[in-house]
Amino acid sequence: MKKKLKKNKKIIGIILIAIVFFAVLKSQGNSEYENLGDDFRVHYIDVGQGDSILVQSGEEYMLIDGGKNVAADTVVNYLKSQNVKKLKYVIGTHPHEDHIGGLDDVIDTFDVENVIMPNVTHNTKSFEDVLDSIMNKGLTITPAVSGERYALGDAELLILAPNGDGYKDLNDYSVVARVQYGNTSFMFTGDAEGISEKEMIDVYGSSLRTDVLKLGHHGSTTSTTNDFLELVNPSVAVITVGKDNTYGHPHKEIIERLEKNNIRIYRTDLDGNILATSDGNSVEFSDGVSVDGNKDTIIDIVFKLFDIFSDM
Q1: Which of 80, 171, 199, 208 is least surrounded by CB atoms within 10 angstroms?
Q2: Helical pair 2-28 and 298-310, crossing angle rounded to 10 deg
């Protein structure tokens, strides 16, 4: 009886704290994001069956992956077309060639401040070429550590994965990053599969909620589990995938899962290069579609606080 009463008091306390916190947020409004402007852009580059994503926040740039070796010129030329001179961060999500193949050319061509990669190696020429380019530029690799935060202009980058080691599949070493710009958010998952998704759920819970989700592993059924998708709860999903690829990506089950959850889908094999622009309150895509950024409701705050207090 005493335990039940104590538990009820804790729940009531959480709700009261949430109400007060929500009232303060509401009174402040969104004025802090009114002056951000639309200087935040995410470019999902069409590199065929692979990943390469350019993130721009003001005058600072980050590149996540560089596609296959054959896509190196595509990536380099795209960055030049966007007047990129320096990359604050280059992230190689994991050592597979369709993600890091073009990174050596990128590192050779542009000024690079930081290289972030998972703490895993691979005995392929593509991986060795990237290491050689890093060494030749006098750079060192910053290991991806879950929970680490980095500034990119007015945006904040949070590393969500990997959360372990000793994985059997290189895909689960994928660096997963979430970028917050004002009220808007973007998640980039590399090829992270179900194991990594489960670990992120355990570590971050409802904090995974994101407006725009780049699907893991090109829309394969190995990724984007129901539980993960439910917590991320995106308005938009972007699939980086090659036209008529031999893997059957994106898999039918994943497309149906997205449609069932009323998630708008963009695909590089159908849409080519995809551009998303944020003003801090909403995200607009190159076809004119706009989605509002996720804002914590009182229910969201209650659940987040409950997660915190339940561990105490």
Answers
A1: 80
A2: 140
Q: Looking up tokens 């030749």, which residue turns up?
A: 136
DSSP labels for 133-165?
Answer: HHHHTT--EEE--TT-EEEETTEEEEEEE---S
**Which token pair is 253?**
């089950």
Max CA separation in the chain (angstroms): 69
Answer yes or no: is pLDDT of 10 > 90.
no
**Arithmetic mean of pLDDT, 294-310:** 48
Fold entry, domain 39-294: Metallo-beta-lactamase; Chain A (3.60.15)
Q: What is the mean pLDDT of residues 131-139?
A: 98
Pairing of β 282-285 and β 290-292: antiparallel
CB under 8 Å, gap of 24 or more: what pairs does 229-235 form? 229/257, 229/258, 229/261, 229/263, 231/201, 231/205, 231/206, 232/187, 232/208, 233/209, 233/294, 234/187, 234/210, 234/263, 235/211, 235/263, 235/264, 235/283, 235/291, 235/292, 235/294
Given CA atoms 166, 68, 146, 108 in this order, what sign does their dihedral have?
Answer: positive
**Phi, psi angles (nearest 5°) of residue 186:** -135, 140
Q: Long-range contacts for 97-100 (Cβ within 8 Å, ≥24 apart)? A: 97/68, 97/69, 97/124, 97/126, 98/49, 98/50, 98/51, 98/67, 98/68, 99/50, 99/51, 99/65, 99/66, 99/67, 99/190, 99/191, 100/65, 100/66, 100/126, 100/127, 100/130
| The 184-188 sheet, strands edge to edge | 149-152, 155-161, 176-181, 184-188, 212-214, 236-239, 264-267
Q: Give the angle subtended at the CA of 191 by the CAs of 157 and 252, to the nearest 5°.
A: 120
- Give CA–CA dist 121/138, Å, rounded: 19
> Per-residue pLDDT for 54 more than 60?
yes
* pLDDT at residue 306 tops 60: no
Nearest Cα to Cα of residue 80 among 31, 121, 45, 128: 45
